[in-house]
Amino acid sequence: MKKVNRQRKKKQESQGLVFQHLEKMSRTLLEKYPEVVREFAKSQNGIYALYKGNKLYYVGLAKNLRTRLRSHLRDRHRSTWDRFSIFLTTSGKHLKELESLVLRIASPKGNRTAGKFIQSRNLLPTIRKKIREIQRKERMDIIGADIPLKMEQVKSKGKTNLGGLASFISRRIHIRFRYKGKLYIAHIRKDGLITFDSKSAGSKALKEKKYKSPSGAASAIAGHAMSGWRCWTYKHSAGNWVALDNLRKKTDIKKADKIEYTEKFHMDGVNEEVKETYYKIKSRLLQINNKLIFNPQKYYISIVYERNIAFFRFRKKKIRLVVMLPEKEVKEGIKNHKIHHLSEGIQKYYNGPCCDIEISNTKDTAEVINLLKVLVLSHGKA
Q1: Cβ-based neighbours of 139, under 8 Å, separated by 6 or more
Q2: Which of 61, 85, 106 is the last residue of a domain?
Q3: How many angstroms separate the CA atoms of 102 and 331, rounded?
Q4: Is residue 85 part of a domain?
Q5: Do 234 and 271 have their domain in common?
Q6: Any residues with CB less than 8 A from the CB of 196 and at least 6 apart, and which?
Q7: pLDDT tens digits along 24-37
Q8: Is the pTM of this model over 0.90?
Q9: Structural domains in the chain (count)
Q10: Which of 1, 71, 231, 308 gives 218 a disulfide partner, CB atoms 3.0 to 4.6 angstroms apart?
Q11: Which of 206, 230, 257 is the last residue of a domain?
Q12: pLDDT tens-digit map of 92-111
């Protein structure tokens, strides 16, 4: 008997996953002739489907299809289906995933859950990440956010370049945090690390460890993530205790006030050919119309003639020039430079039809100047 079963099993596996099936039979077969179904469905693995007319209502799996189908004659589904299909499988190994696959594709009305896959990775987070990357590149095209920050880097031999809290303070300061009725006192050292006061720390772990951020120190006390910039307070010069976040905001404002956006700011880090190209175009346009204004902003230098008509965005070895003309018109006048299409969202940002000209050398700048000349003259007439 065992030998016969093994031979039957081997034969089933060689035939594929599904070795027998019965589709859209009336439930009368189960009700009046259960012995007929029992003959081939008893103790068999498989997937079954219940229908109301020709419409799929429910999908399930079972290791004993006959018993499961008979149970549906009495359970909550008893009055919702009149036909059924069964698919007998050679193995129950991937049965659950097959059911989940059908549920996710067909979404039958009678199933309460969509089914789960054992090891399948949901690609949605990856797709979201890819879309964010594409949108980030679009934002770069809009505001030039990929331009390296024009900030001096502190270089010192044998010394650590201090960051984090150290950039906001010039001396050691005391901070405190009240949590669940207990007052915790700590110190921010000149190097930006936070250490707890030995008397208020309580636990040995807090006393011995050094924290790189206020949030890390606050989370160590609470046992879960917390925003330390809002929890910790320090003594303001006026004498009152205020949130540590005020220190950060105050410092950021001071830093921002010191930055002056000039042509020199934009020329820092670009090669000589890029500088020569920009000044050549600027000089020629001012000869055509001395009322033009070259207005340096954070991410670009705009050409202003009552309104913005073009934008210079600088890279190390090239200029990306956004001109306020439809792409078709630009292609008619520019033959020797690469033209980049701008998305509808970017064109809305620039307040009108526009495209991007890539200028990587001083050659053929005449056609760029002629295009801008047409733009200036046409705007003057308007």
Answers
A1: 145
A2: 106
A3: 51
A4: yes
A5: no
A6: 184, 185, 186, 206, 207, 217
A7: 888 888 888 888 87
A8: no
A9: 3
A10: 231
A11: 257
A12: 666 677 777 777 767 777 77
